[in-house]
Design goal:
homodimer; 358 residues; alpha/beta; Spore Coat Polysaccharide Biosynthesis Protein SpsA, Chain A; 2 domains; five-stranded mixed beta barrel; four-stranded mixed beta sheet
Chain lengths: 358, 358
């Protein structure tokens, strides 16, 4: 079994802590290890043959640095794409590498920037998915929804046959409006699309060939001899990647294939979409405030804030429902319900060409 | 004429920019020179014989450093009190030093941590005060009030004799309540007590002897030969200062003496009592926000904020009437109308013994 961690994402909603060269997966949003490191740590117990981390050139150095501590425990391979092209090319490339060595090898695909509270349950769910994947199914983990989230995609399971799954997937659904989300929650057979997949390397390549023939040809044109060692790999694929279209494996394969099944996963999952998600994963203090990375947090007449302090002191006086994030060189202050708009701050910095702070 | 700058104050309301070893007078609240440096710069045109800066041991080094740039322009003396004992001992000590060399020398006493917009008018007003001081009067500058401030002390002038002053002072008044402040503003003969004084060194010493005889004796016991050079001065007065009572020159002499006169001063003065005073001295941007020390300030749906950014970026999104101050290692966020309570944050830090941030 091979772990493939998709760690090449970029994002702006955790600015100012996340930056272009240090996006969400490479930062420690709460205290302790980074999101990528937590992702690696939660699968070590599965004893994977290899852990393959797909990143890109810009983040390669920091990713390498963060992974170094695990090399004594498991073989860790770094695949640095010349540019990010969404998940389909990354998944396809990893599958092509695995299939060379181990045609029926199982791939567990994990995003590097999601939060999972219950690691034990994740591993149990993965074991179940691996079992079905051996028979050629494309398995996806469907998160048991706990609220009518409008920020997640959903998948509808065919639960006619009772039991704990796996279940066939009837359809994938884009982020719904509030009403639809409520209906999904009530229906009981809708799950959040986690982006966690399990399949045989040869299964996914066959489906890519079927539904994404151009990508399949492009992957075929890459010379992949002796490629666990990927030192000189990126240069070889730069030209090919320049022509590869940006596509998600969800849209490219999963929504079309009839080989898709899902396993319900009740694992305390969050995609941590913005600073406002911090209370989902951290305990609040007695004032309802969540505090990360502070030598001390001084709260006077304040409540329900979200505070990240770069190892220093943050003081709020008479502030409520407010996000305060400092990185030393940059500070963000906004109401909790405006957290989605932090990307607009980054847009503005881009327009001002303040690349130092991006 | 001698300039005596009282620069030994401590304060907490500009935390986190001001710290114990770097209080308000030693920081640059807006961009550019520090408050102390601005104080020196506004009197250089008066061509003083010497500029004497009274500070204390804790702030001596930083004060020395900030004054070094002026030594080529004017003789600058540093008097470091072993401990701060309010203004009366500082004024008395400076007077005792001056009187040794120049018995009828005129002292202009200036606090180091006040803001004055109109330097030209200050100098004109001081010239007028110096004229009266030569005849032995204790002159004080009364700031023409522009609002019913409850944060300042007032002085009541006897303006029976019309003209532009000087006027006799009837009485000094502690910080009034709102109603009294409104009455003062309406009456027309009440002025804000600026703490800017002009007198002959021998005049103030005579009044100290009359109204503060104990302090006079203590000052007499200090050996003051060749004291412009004050290198070894502090050690000599440590024991004496340990016994000196903490008293203001206002309370100790000005409120009692019948030799006090005032000159109205319309000089754009503010004592800059807290972060909420920043809009009095800085132009606001089109959103009504005042910004200091920022490489860039990103304002999205925000207005009327007060922002100080330690040379980095501050972003506010959906914030109004809010103070945001960052020093890299510490961040303060509070509503504008809570600025007076910043000292409570410092109290808390003291209780937590977080001396690094004090």
């Amino acid at each position: 079994m091979y772990i493939v961690i998709l760690a090449g994402g970029s994002g702006t909603r955790f600015w100012p802590v996340s930056r272009t060269s240090r996006p969400k997966q490479l930062i420690s949003i709460t205290d302790g290890p980074t999101m990528l490191q937590r992702t690696v740590e939660r699968v070590l117990d599965l004893k994977p043959k290899r852990i393959m981390v797909v990143t890109n050139q810009l983040q390669k150095e920091e990713t390498e640095h963060q992974l170094s501590r695990y090399r004594s425990v498991a073989p860790v391979d770094l695949i640095a794409e010349p540019v990010g092209r969404n998940t389909a090319p990354a998944v396809g490339l990893a599958a092509a590498i695995i299939v060379l060595h181990d045609p029926e090898g199982i791939m567990v695909v994990l995003p590097a920037d999601h939060y999972i509270r219950n690691d034990e349950e994740l591993r149990a769910t993965l074991h179940k998915a691996i079992h079905s994947a051996r028979n050629g199914w494309l398995m996806t983990l469907g998160i048991v929804p706990v609220s009518p989230e409008t920020g997640y995609g959903y998948l509808e399971a065919d639960m006619a046959l009772r039991g704990t799954g796996p279940f066939p997937v009837r359809r994938f659904m884009e982020k719904p409006d509030r009403e639809t989300a409520l209906a999904c929650l009530e229906a009981g057979n809708f799950f959040w699309n986690s982006g966690i997949f399990v399949w045989r390397a040869d299964s996914i390549l066959a489906e890519i060939e079927k539904y994404m023939p151009e990508l399949a040809l492009q992957l075929d044109s890459i010379t992949l001899n002796n490629v666990w060692d990927l030192a000189d790999f990126t240069g070889q694929i730069t030209d090919i990647y320049a022509r590869i279209a940006s596509q998600s494996i969800d849209y490219g394969v999963m929504e079309k294939s009839d080989r898709v099944q899902m396993v319900p996963a009740d694992i305390g999952w969050s995609d941590l979409g913005s600073w406002s998600a911090l209370p989902d994963i951290c305990d609040a203090n007695e004032d309802g405030t969540v505090v990360a990375h502070c030598a001390a947090y001084i709260s006077l007449d304040s409540s329900n804030c979200i505070v990240s302090g770069n190892g220093g002191v943050v003081a709020t006086l008479g502030m409520h429902d407010t996000i305060v994030v400092s990185t030393g060189d940059a500070v963000l202050v906004c109401p909790r319900d405006r957290a989605q708009d932090v990307r607009k701050v980054v847009d503005r910095l881009q327009k001002m060409e303040l690349s130092e702070y991006l």
